[in-house]
Amino acid sequence: MPTETDVIIIGAGAAGLSATKELSRLGKTSIVVEASHRIGGRAYSEEIAPGVWFDLGCAWLVEGLANPFVPIAEALGITVMQNTCSLFKGENIHYYRSGTALSDEQRATCARYYSDSNSAISIAVKHGRDVPLSDVVDLENEFATPFVGSVASSWGLDLDLVSTADYGSAYGELGFPVVDGYGNLIAAWGADVPVTLNARVERIDWSGRGVKVDTPQGTITGRAALSTVSTGILASGDILFEPGLPDWKLEAIDSLPMGTENKMGVYFDRDVFGEDSHGFYATWNESGSTAKVVAGVMGRNTAAVFVGGRHGVWLEKQGQQACHDFAVEMIADIFGNDIRKHVVRSIVTAWETEPLSRGSWACARPGQAHQRVNLARPVDDRLFFAGEATMTGLQGTCHGAYLSGIQAAQEIATQLNSGTSQT
Question: What domains, with CATH codes, occur in the chain?
Answer without folding.
Answer: 4-40+190-257+362-418 (3.50.50.60), 90-170+261-353 (3.90.660.10)
